Amino acid sequence: MQWTDEAVILGTRKHGENSVIAEVMTRARGRHMGIVRSGRSKAMQPVLQPGNLVEVTWRARLEEHLGEFRLEPIRSRAAALMESAVSIYGVQAMAALLRLLPERDPHPHLFEALNVILDHFDDPLDACELYIRFELAVLNDLGFGLDLAECAATGARTDLAYVSPKSGRAVSRVAGEPYAERMLRLPAFLGEESRKAANSDSLVDAFGLTAYFLERHVYEPRGLKMTEARDGLREAALKALRRAHEREISA
Amino acid sequence: MAKRVTGPEIEKLIQLLAKVPGLGPRSARRAALHLVKKKDQLMAPLAHAMGEAVVKVGVCSRCGNVDTSDPCTVCTDPTRDHSVIIVVEDVADLWALERAGAMNAAYHVLGGTLSPLDGVGPDDLNIRALVDRVAEGGVREVIIAVNATVEGQTTAHYITDRLAGLEIKISRLAHGVPVGGELDYLDEGTLTAALRARTAI
After folding, report:
1. In B, residues 118-147, which contact A (CB 8 Å cutoff)?
2. In the structure, what pLDDT confidence band is assigned to residue A196 with cuts at 50, 70 and 90?
C-alpha cells in the first residue's frame, strides 16, 4: 500500500530512541498517523513541527497498519508561528480540534481551511474570526452543526441576535428578547452581517458560543476537557487587541 | 530454540543494560561482558556508585534539579545570582547550559513541555512551583530556555501568561543560525527566524 498527499503536521510523539509517530492532516485522507524513521534527527525535527506543510508518502503492507511516512517539506511555517502567542496557541488549538475527528476520515474542506488560517495569524482579529468558523465547521462535520442563517421562531433572516442553547439555531432579537438571559449571544460576524469584521466583544461572544456546543456535544460525552490552547488563543488575541487599541489612543 | 549460554543473573544484567538510552540488546551484551571481565576494577565500583545514587539522589523541592541534597547544589550556591532564573525543560538542558558557563544564574526544571498528543498538561509540569518561587520576591528576570519547537514555545507563552502581573523581566533564548552552521544547509524556518532576529553590527 502506498499513497502520496499534501499534509499539515499536527504533532509528533516519541517512538523509541530515534523515531517519532507523526500525526498529520492530509488533503484527501483526513487525519492520519505514521512512523517517521529518524524523526528525531537534526534534519527531520524542523520539518516535523506543527503547522508545516509537507508532501507525505505513506507506505504499509496492509491498509490497517500504522505504516511509515516519508516527508518532504513544502512550506515551513513553524518559525513564524512561534513568534506570537496568538499563532502558537492557534495552531495547537486547531490540532486539538482535528483530533476530535475520526482517523483516516477525509475532510478536504477542513484541510483547506487549516492551510488558509495558518497563513493568517498576523492579525489576531482575522485569525480568531477564522478560527471560530473552523470550530463551526468541525462541529458541523461531527454532526452538530449550528443553523445561524434564519430565526428558529419566526423564520426571519435579519436582526439575528441570539442562538438557542437547546436547538443550536439562531433566534431574532425580537423573538429572543424575553429569554435573553438563557440565550447565547450571536456575534454579528457569524450572522447575516457576515461581512462585518469581529471586535473584542463579538470575539468573546463567539468563543463562548462555540465552547458551549463543543462542550455539550463533544467534550463532555467523551469525558474530555477543552484544551488550554483554546483559552490561550482567546486571551492572547484579546490582549493583542487591547494593546493595539492603547497604541491607537496614544497616537 | 537457542540454548542459554549464561546464568539468569547475567541475562538480567544484559536485559537491564539494554534499557539504558543508547544501548540496544547487542551493545548491552558487550557492556555486560566488559563489566564481567573487569569485575573488580569496574563492576564493583559501578554497583557501589549506583547503590549510593539510588539512596541519595532526589529531586530538588525548589527547582526540580536532581542532586544528592535538597535544596540542590545550584540552589544553595551563594556565588550564583539568584535574582535570575533560567527555566529549562529537563535536567539535561540544565547540564548543557552549565557546560556553556554563559550565566551564573539559578535554574528551574519544568520536567517537559506541554504536549496535547502525549497528554501532558500544565498540571503535569513544574510550573506552579516556578510561579510561587517568583512571587516570593527577589527575582528580577526569568529566562525561558526551552527548545525552539512549537511545543516548547507554547510552554514558553503559557509560562509568560502565568507570570504576567509580577514585576519581572521575562526573556527567551534567540532563535537562529548555530555557530558553525552553513546557511545553505539550514531549514527555511531557522533562516526566517534568524533574519527576523537580526542584530546591528
Report:
1. 118, 121-122
2. low
Query: Which whole-number Å values give the CA distances from B87 to A49, A51, B79, B120, in the listed order?
Result: 22, 25, 19, 18
Q: Which of B22, B117, B160 has its CB closest to that of A13? A: B117
Over pLDDT 90: what percentage of chain A?
A: 69
Q: Which three cell numbers stand for residue B184?
A: 545553505
Q: Would you say residue A217 has pLDDT above 90?
A: yes
- Where is B57: in which H helix or E strand? none
The predicted pLDDT at position B5 comes to 78
Rounded-to-integer distance, Cα B56 and Cα B43, Å: 20
Question: What is the C-alpha separation between A215 and A144, in angstroms, rounded?
Answer: 11
CA distance A6 to A111: 9
Nearest-angstrom CA–CA distance, B85 and B74: 11
Q: What percent of chain B has pLDDT over 70?
A: 99
Are A98 and A31 in contact by the 8 Å Cβ rule? The answer is yes
Average pLDDT in chain B: 92
**Helix segments in A62-123, DSSP class H:** 78-81, 85-98, 108-117
Do A210 and A190 touch, CB atoms closer than 8 A?
no
- A131, three cell numbers: 478560527
Cell numbers of A178, please?
A: 424575553
- Report the SS3 class of residue A44: coil
Please report the pLDDT score of residue A198 as a whole number. Answer: 75
Task: Please report residues of A whose CB lies closer than 8 A to that of B117.
Answer: 10-13, 23, 99
* Residue pair B154/B114 in contact by the 8 Å Cβ criterion: yes
Task: Note the pLDDT of residue A208.
Answer: 95
- Per-residue pLDDT at B3 exceeds 80: no
Instruction: Please choose, from the candidates B91, B78, B85, the residue with its C-alpha nearest in 3D space to the C-alpha of residue B136.
Output: B85
Which pTM does this prediction carry?
0.85
- Cis peptide, bond prior to residue B71, ω within 30 of zero: yes
Q: Is the pLDDT of residue A50 over 70?
A: yes
Question: Helix (H, G, I), strand (E, B), or coil: what is residue B35?
Answer: helix
Number of A–B residue contacts, CB under 8 Å: 81
- CB atoms closer than 10 angstroms to residue B169: 10
Work out the minimum CA distance from A79 to partner chain B, whole angstroms.
5
Q: B27 — contact with chain A (CB < 8 Å)?
A: no
